[in-house]
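Example record used in the benchmark description.
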Amino acid sequence: MNPFDKLKSELKRLETGYREESYYRSLCEFLEAYGSGKEYLHMLNISATSNPNSESIGEGIGFPDIEVRQNRRLVGYVEVKTPDENIDNPAYSTQFIKYRESLENVIFTNFKKWILYTWDKDGKPQKTEEAEWDYHQDLGTEQLKKLLTIFFEGQSYQAKTPHQLAIALARKTRLLSQQVEEALIAKNPDKKLVDLKKTFEKTLIQDISDHQFANIFAETIAYSLFLAKLEHYEKGSNEDFSLRTAVDFLPKNVPIFKDLYQLTGGRVEPITQGIYKATEILIEQLNFADIERIYKKLVEHKPGEDPVIQFYEPFLSEYDPEERKARGVYYTPKPVVDYIVRCVDHILKNKFDKKKGLGDESVQVLDPATGTGTFLMSVIQNIYADIEKENKPLGEEAIKRKFKDVVSNHILKHLYGFELLVAPYAIAHLKLTLELERLGFNFSMTEDDQDKENDRLKIFLANTLDDPNQPPHSLFGFESITDESEKARLVKKNEPILVITGNPPYSNYGQMNQGDWILNLLQDYKKDLIEKKINLDDDFIKFIRFAQWKLEHTGQGIFAMITSSTFIDGITHRQMRKSLLETFDEIYIYNLHGNIRRNEVAPNGIDDENVFQIMTGVSINFFIKYPEKKLETIVKSSELWGTRSKKFEVLLDEEFNNTKWQTVNYLEFNDKFRNTVWGKKFGSDLNFFVHKGLDAIIEYGNFWGISDIFPEKGLGLKTERDNLTIHFSKMDLENVINDFRNLDENSLRIKYGLGSDSRDWKINYAKKDLHEHMEDENYISEFNYRQFDTRYIWYSGKTRGFIGTPGFAMMRQFQNKMNLGLISSRTVYGSESWQDIFVTSKMFEFGIMASRPGNSAPVFPLYLYEQKSSQISLLGVGSGMASRVNISSEFIKEFSGKLGLVFVETGQGDLENNFGPEDVFYYTYAVFHSPTYRTRYAELLKIDFPRVPLTKNKELFKKLIKKGNELVNLHLLGENPFDKTETIFDDTSKWGVRIDGNKPEDIDDWKIVAISYDEKTKRIFVNSGQYFEGIEKEVWEFMVGGYQVLEKWLKDRKKAGRTLSYEDQIQYIKISVSLRESLRIMKEIDEIIPKWPLE
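Model output (structure tokens):
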């Protein structure tokens, strides 16, 4: 009987009521028979075995059910479902996606439908073949044969470059990470694995999640195997490179790798078979790579190049881009690093009398966030360049001998690096070892010199921000990790570090650096601040504080780092700047700009890009401390605009002494600012590290800030799971709610691709919230997701419920209430003009103004409601539900005195005898939309919440109220709860925008495919044939906060895969009309105001 007939017979026998596992043996026999049969492929030694670690859906991802090999060569995998299961069921999508992205040859089948996925030449999964097999009617057999033939031709992906190998390893390492995470959350997890996680928590990363730990563990195994494979090749070993032998080729001077490696099952019992098999897949990938070619590409590079960019960066980007973003880890471009290191060398030689600069044996250097060792590599190259220059007349041998002496007596003894994550720590050891070898040094040169201080690089696996007075905790079996941390602790505590340099992480990764020691040091930066919420906990700030502390203990030194530039002029960073001024004698800030989120534009209009692939602007910072403190600290700054390549070009050639430094007159600015109303509010100097114009400071500083006018404010809600909790339609939201009330946690996690829970959002918390509040009509609300973008949300106000961070104290002021709220960001970086103001009458999302947390925008409500009331009428209307207006009595007193009008507690006044809270709101909104106001005070608007001038001119007051009212009506699309008069939205003949075009073939009607604007025709296209017509360029480019409104609205719907309904189209036209009319009114506001400053 041929294999097809035999399989058909078995399938008919097992037709109904059998579990998936019942089919394994029959399928294995079929695959073996087809692969080895003479009338088919006639391949020798084909074996198909069921995987004992395979998991049923809902219990974990596991491994595919069937593994196919030819001898030891892996052919591929088969994931099996029963014939009565729908293989296209969304419940299987998470599992299928993970398999096809991690394994280069995998079949998914329910025996009726067979789908084969393989990797293309770039290592990306693609559907290669699909077959429909009707084994009852004997249809589709030839199609299935074709699919199986392609499958049996499969083999491991052959990577030929570091980049290709990085992508392939990253994909397969994800599978290992999943196995580790599943092993951790098992009912009876392996004790060794649990102990290792505890060691990480106590020694390196506090409160590390299972997902983060699994990621780090798997990444480390991948890198250690890669290092071992390179060593295996470099030694020319004839021994097979296998899971059992790889341990012999791990770096001997980094014992951590061997400790971790044992858990995979190299020579001892593995934690789980899943971990063992996933590690074997990595071994197979390395064996099938062109390792000779890859090794040469890593070693044979030009002096100005960094080979790590060919491997480490693509690995990080592919492996877990979200986790990488959360860590704030980004590779520092070599031109940036080399500029910083050259400058440090110059400062040492010219300001510290170190004639040999970084090569002086008295200079101890620390990179506290060393990553892959790029800064230390540049230090080594700088030292070598000086040696080569000095000894070149004496010949190559003199250069080599001198360099060997310097490496043995200085580089290996006085260059330190601390790294928290094991994978970059491994790469740093590899990279610097290869670089030393390239320059003529080998560790064999120091093996017999009886000096233990030069046996290894002093790069330690440690948390820089841990208490240097507290020895690390130790757990039996993982002493190597503890030993690394202890070595780093002693360096922090005892060594007279003179230079601290590097690129610290920017984010507050997983809240992991929350040790008492560093948090206590940070209090110096928070002292006497009046803000309720102080955002000074980002990791880069902690590293700056560490460097400051260390150099204070040394008594002198240089701190040179590239960091986020937010601290140089952030308002909440003023005490931080004060502290730095008290410690250091000279401060140099090189602002590289590149704040992409804020559309930063150079003064001359040229494009500006970040030197990193990130959105946050950055600066290079030099802090110099002399043994004797100078009376007055010198602050100088410079700036660099342009494309990334242009900035690299400048930094490649620039030196410290030819950078265009300009003195920052921070003391003069402080004196001027201190005497304004604004300045008196802070009670402390701002001490900006960049130049701020003085012309408008007195004028603007005596205006009223909106946080002083409207004292109560708060942020919008933060769901923690936008895609799950926020919906375009009420029906879609109701479907999710029903699922959460009726499905179990595992089914929900798989159906909605929810991944791991977070601190503020967990599935069981969401389910509990929904079960406790069943009256959906009370909890389903429209809310503003972004400007002009109204969606649906289920909102009970419960913290860590269905909505993770509901912000109930402020959102209750808008949920089913009549209210207006002014939304504005506190600090704005880099935008060409200020546009961070908007209005809401509904609840809104945290990122309504910009997607960057640092630019979160609070709301200033006009009215404040009592918490217990459920009515929706205002003070003076009906039951008097609003307890009070949110306007300060001091403001009312001053403005009332200027105008000669009495303030009424609700609504609007007659503006002849009195005025009300809504008049104040509209007046303020109008002033903030004056184009002249925005340009005149542009620099000052970047510092704090906007400030409004008070007029004493009643007629001007009336006119501005009218314009502000019109703007509010426009921005609420005619739905101002306090103004029911007709608006332009009630008369379509005034809209002037048309819907037109023809539906392209092969796409749905009004499907958003490609968004573009044609200035000549004034059309906004959503695909190649359909468009909105009649929209001017300035309307298309209109910005609110960090978003280009019309583009953002379409992009969000494109991302969601939506087609535009008739209601959507009308909404979009209304938005464009609103923006067009806003531009008209903004011009009219400038015409109304006779002169500035406003009187």
